[in-house]
Design goal:
Six copies of one chain form a homohexamer. Chain A is mainly β. Chain A has a single domain, classed as OB fold (Dihydrolipoamide Acetyltransferase, E2P) (Beta Barrel). Chain A is built from one helix and six strands; from the N terminus they run ββββαββ.
C-alpha cells in the first residue's frame, strides 16, 4: 500500500502509555524522540510494545514549521 | 516559547513550491525527507528558502503508526 | 503495511483539481462524495486520475461527530 | 449551519468507549466501520449512545489517499 | 446541527486568497486575526467574502498550547 | 521561536481534566471558551493549571468555516 502522506519516519517503540481510549506511543527515530497518540484499539491490533519497529506517518498539512528568533 | 506539541524535528529547507494559497516546504532531517504544507503567507513571513534551519513541529495526535506486514 | 488509522473507506477517484502545491481529489465511496486535499506531488506519485481505485484513510482524532437538532 | 468541511458521512453509533478525557465513538456507515475520537464532554453533550444517528464530518485536508501496490 | 468540535469562534471574513485548489480565508474575531485554509469549492459554496459573518470551528485535538519561557 | 501556524489566541487556563494519556485543557479567551486535547505529559511539562496564561495555537488547515443557514 502506498500513501499520499509525505512524511514517513522509521522508528522503534520505546514506551506505550495506555488510557481507556487513547494510547501514547513513544518512539525513537535515530535519536529523535517522537510521540504518537492513537486509539488503544490500534495499539493492541498492531502489537505495539517496546522494541517494535514502526513507521511514523504524518500528512504534510499537519507539519508546522518553526524558526528560532 | 514552549509548546505542548511532542514532536520537534530539526531540519534544513531544501525546496519551497509556492501556489497562490499554499506552499509545500521540503525539508531534510538528517537524511529523512519531510514535507510541510503551510500558507504562502507563513513561508514568506518566516523567510523560508533553501538552506534555512528550521524545526518541524507535529502534534502527537497527528502521528499515525504503521507496521510492515 | 498496517496502519493505526481507524478509518479506511474504499472509493473511486472521480476528479482531480490541481493547483501548484495542492490537489483536491474527489472520490465516490458507494454513492458518498468524499474530497481529499493532498500535495500535487502525492497525486502524481500515486497516479491519481478518474476511475482509479483508492482507499480514503482518516485518523480517528480527525473525525468530528455531528447530530441534527 | 453549513460547513466548509467536504466530507459528511451518515452513520449510526454502535459503541462508545469512554476514558477520563477522550471517548472513542464507533460508527457504522452502511457497512463501513468508522471510529471518531472526541472529548468525553462532547460525547455526553451530544447524547451519543448505541443506535444514535449521526454524521461523521472530516475536513478534506485530513484525508489521506492510499493505493494498493 | 450540533458538533462534537469544542471550539467555535464567531468571526467576520476580512479577506479571501484563492488558489486553484485552496483558499485562505482571513477572519477577524473581536480583534484577533484568524486564518482558515479550506477548499476553493467550500469557499464558493458558502459564499465567503469580505464582511460575511462566520464561525471558526476547531476540534480540541487540533489545538496546541504554548507558554512563554 | 516563530511558527508557521497562523492562529494564536491568548487565553487563560480555567480547568484541566486528566486521563491516563490525554488531558483536556479548558481555556478562556476573552470570554470565548476553548478546549485543547493534549498529552498528559505536555500538560505536566508546561505546568498547566487554573490561572496560567497560555497561547492556543492552531494551524490554518485545521480551521473549519461554518455559516448559519
Amino acid at each position: 500500500m502506498r500513501l499520499s502522506a509525505r512524511n514517513k519516519i522509521t522508528a522503534t517503540v520505546t514506551a506505550v502509555t495506555r488510557g481507556e481510549a487513547t494510547a501514547n506511543v513513544v518512539l525513537d527515530a535515530g535519536g529523535v524522540r517522537l510521540v504518537a497518540s492513537i486509539t488503544v484499539e490500534a495499539a493492541d491490533e498492531l502489537g505495539l510494545a517496546e522494541g517494535k519497529q514502526v513507521i511514523a506517518v504524518v500528512k504534510a498539512s499537519d507539519v508546522i514549521v518553526a524558526v528560532s528568533d
